Amino acid sequence: MQIVSALFVENFELRQAAGPSTRIDITGAMFSMAAPSPAPVTISPHLVALIFCPTGEPGSGVFEVVFRKGLTEADDELARNVSPFTVEPGKFTYRLVKGELEFADYGQIFAHCRVDRGAWHLVPFTLLPPV
Question: Partner of 87 for a Cys bridge, out of 19, 83, 93, 96, CB 3.0 to 4.6 A?
Answer without folding.
Answer: 93
